[in-house]
Amino acid sequence: MNGILRAEQLAYRYPQNEYGLQPISLAAEPGEALLIAGPSGCGKSTLARCLTGLIPHLYHGTLRGSVWVGGLRTEAAPLWQLSERAGLVFQNPSAQMLAESVENEVIFGLENLGLTRQTIKQRLEEALAHFGLQGLRQRSPQTLSGGEQQKLALAAITARRPPVLILDEPLSMLDGTAAADLVEHLAKLTASGTTVVTCEHREEFLCDVPGLRTIRLEGRTQPETSPPPSPFRAGSPGGSLEVKGLSVSLGGRPILHDLHLSVEGGEVVAVVGRNGVGKTTLLRALAGLQQHGGTINIDGRDPDLGLVFQNADLQLFNASVRDEILYKVAAPDPELYGWLLQALGLAAYEEVPPLLLSEGEKKRVALATVLMRRPRDGLLLDEPSLGQDAAHKSLLIRLARSLAGAGQRVILTTHDLPLAVQADRLLLLGPEGFVADGPPAQVLEAHAAWADLGLRVPHWLEVPERVVEERGGL
Amino acid sequence: MIRLGTSGRSRQLALVERSPLRHADPRTKLALSMCASLAVMLSLEKLVAFMGLYVLLLFWARLLPEAARQVWRLKWVLLVLFVVDWIFVSLDLAVIIVLRLSLLAGAFALFFATTTPAELRLALEWMRVPYRYAFSLSVAFQSVGLLDDEWRAIREAQQARGAWTRPEGWRKLLESLGDLIALAVPAIVMTTKRAWAMTEAAYARGFDSPHRRPYAQLSMGRLDWNLLAATLAVAVALLLWR
Asked: Do B134 and A295 contact (CB within 8 A), yes or no?
């Protein structure tokens, strides 16, 4: 095998747990686009680190096989040389920001190439212009939206002009439009001769990249077990969750203004909107964690809604999954506990420290901790599909239906339109409030509303028919 | 996702853009702060005189509120030290100890409230601090603000799952001490993960390159020379003062 990028019988195992990468060989030519797909925990991020040399230089697990990038063997060459040949954009753009301003973020990587001031200035301007970041050059990267941060991460890497670009789940935090923009940009990069390797769950977005070749990694196999019947018994829907005149300002900046919403018991509602429009703020207000104007109540009382956060690391701290789920639960229901382990695919990890699990598994543990408390009025899920593969997304939606069947309400915020259209009701949130509200098929037809918000509905998106069929049980 | 306010820094470390010192060279500001902190060795009379001048400088630089905020954060420590020294030693010692600590707390407000992490890095490199340490220190300085926001997010997340309740009253406060682990473990995990992610991100952009060439450059202007001359004059005056 030849090519600008080559891996032969590459396998890796982390020292602290059983995760890693099963043996794989691949090769890519200049200008080629590769998609690395596979279920959660199959080793996509590990492969990205192997291809850029971060493994084995910064990780000390067991590496087998070899990787060559631009003619250099990753085990032998220093990281700075490898970084000139293969650039890596990490999964979480916020965590890879190193400078106090957008401009300095791009400059950092250029300085390390040893370029002259004149060349750095020229490349900086080109990168900022290319990604539409000129107006943000003095802003702190930490104050940018997820989409802007992702653009900046990409600008900081592509300004270095590596012949190979590797992206680890670049779409996971982007709204539909930002994702489509990114895919368009990747297509341009391949056309200009850059080899682009994308590790991604949301494969459907990448179908527009010309000549895309998909390599599928095998996941860890789990024994197929059918979960016991749902402990959420069919119940009559309670009163309606009424939100009237909800307004929230953060740091003096209005985020939500005079929002009105009514959600009946038994409904699964998905809220979509652009990055930074206030979706998470809405959930925090509904959970009683955010000071706000206006009223939120069910039959005149404060609602009891369990909130599962976007970042599971905020919630996990116990020594085992069992301790985590049962922590401070008065009179735990063994039937519910057993069901949660089975239904969320956690039975094999009952004694494992949650912090050693994959991101997707940690999110499911966090969900279990909230459900174990049996919140009276329903569940709020903030970006529940982050880090989840198709099978687990499907499980999430069935779980939401199971709760809805018991008369509770489930409100989820997401960028993941294929997930959102599986809800009973789709809400489109814009800066002025909800601009569309109704069954997903109907809201998807509100073309003007989507266009006004600068959002695009992908041409391949379909509303599944099973939405109605599956209601009522897991 | 954790985000900071519009400044990108915590309130305690907000950059004071309106300060005239914002445009001074970081080496000058570092020299001023170091001279101010060395002044703690002065006798009581000289210390009081120096603090008077330092307060005037802070006033001119529009940094008095920043410095006052740093000192205010130490109010309980200062109070305890003052009372203990007064009771067990003397009022003079109590006063000088409190003044010295206040000066130390306020001394670096001048530097940190007017200097960006990139400027800090350049100043440290000029002082021959190896790049990897200068870079690490500047990134740490820049990340301090994130800790505040992460702590708040963790508190909310644990509150949402019933693992932590806001303490009300002394009894509840004691009970909630046991819940601190629910806050401390995620805080440690998140800080460690962030540090690791930044390390990876730095190496992925050639952090260890021996060919690095800095883009920004330090330059001393008239303001810097004036400030250094004034500092020198004050130092000589204090030394000659009998």
From this structure: no
Contact between B205 and A146 using a beta-carbon 8 Å cutoff: no
**A166: which strand partners?**
A88, A197
DSSP state of B73: T
CB contact under 8 A, A109 and B117: no
Chain segment A437-468, per-residue pLDDT in tens: 999 999 988 888 888 888 878 777 777 765 44
| CB-based burial label for A250 (10 Å; 0-12, 13-18, 19+) | middle
- Which residues lie across from A216 on neighbouring strands? A37
Find, among A363, A289, A278, the residue nearest to A324 by Cα: A363
Q: What is the largest CA-CA distance in chain B?
A: 66
Compute the distance between CA of residue A112 and CA of residue A84 in angstroms, rounded to an integer. Answer: 9
Task: Kindly report the backbone phi and psi dihedral angles of residue A134, in degrees, each rounded to the nearest multiple of 5, phi listed first.
Answer: -60, -40
The secondary element (H helix, E strand) that includes residue A435 is strand A433-438
> Can you say whether the dihedral through the CA atoms of A389, A391, A392, A396 is positive or negative?
positive
Q: Is residue B37 scored above 70 in pLDDT?
A: yes
Distance between CA atoms of B134 and B115, rounded to whole angstroms?
14
DSSP track, A363-388: HHHHHHHHHHT--SSEEEEESTTTT-
Write the residue in B156, B158, B203 that is nearest to A79 by C-beta: B203
Q: Which residues contact B198 (CB under 8 A, 6 or more apart)?
A: A95, A96, A98, B139, B143
At A127, the pLDDT band (50, 70, 90 cuts) reads: very high
Spell out which residues of chain A touch residue B202, defining contact as CB-CB under 8 Å.
98, 108
One-letter amino acid for residue A298 of the chain: I
Residues of B in contact with A140 (CB under 8 A): 4, 7-9
- Which two structure tokens, joined as six digits, stand for B190? 């998140």
User: How would you list the strands of the sheet with A268-273, edge to edge?
Assistant: A305-308, A378-382, A409-413, A268-273, A425-430, A433-438
In this structure, what token pair is assigned to residue B103? 């000066």
Q: Which residues pair with A167 in a beta bridge?
A: A89, A198
For chain A, how long is the longest CA-to-CA vector?
A: 71
Looking at residue B119, its amino acid is E
d(CA A329, CA B162): 8
Residue with tokens 């949402």: B160
Q: Are B53 and B110 in contact (CB under 8 A)?
A: no
What are the phi and psi torsion angles at A210 (to 5°)? Answer: -65, 140
Please answer yes or no on whether B186 and A160 come within 8 Å at the CB atom.
Answer: no
Question: Which residue do the tokens 């106090």 mark?
Answer: A100
CA dihedral B29, B34, B40, B44 (to 10 degrees): -50
Instruction: Tell me the pLDDT tens digit for each residue of A193-218.
Output: 999 999 987 787 888 788 899 999 87
User: What distance in Å separates the CA atoms of residue B50 and residue B130, rounded to the nearest whole number?
Assistant: 34
Name every residue whose Cβ is closer than 8 Å to that of residue A286 and which is 6 or more positions away in sequence: A241, A243, A296, A303, A305, A307, A380, A411
Give the residue, A207 or A430, on which the prediction is more confident: A430
Reply yes or no on whether the pLDDT at A328 is more than 70: yes
| Residue A228: band (very low, low, confident or very high) from pLDDT cuts 50, 70, 90 | low
CB neighbourhood size of B18 (10 A): 9
A331 Cβ contact partners less than 8 Å away, ≥ 6 residues apart: none
The residue whose two tokens read 């000071």 is A291
Beta partners for residue A198, in sequence order: A35, A167
Residue A56: asked if its preceding bond is cis (omega within 30°), the reply is: yes
Which residues touch B202 (CB under 8 Å, ≥6 apart)? A98, A108, B135
Between positions 10 and 39 of B, the ones with CB within 8 A of A are: none
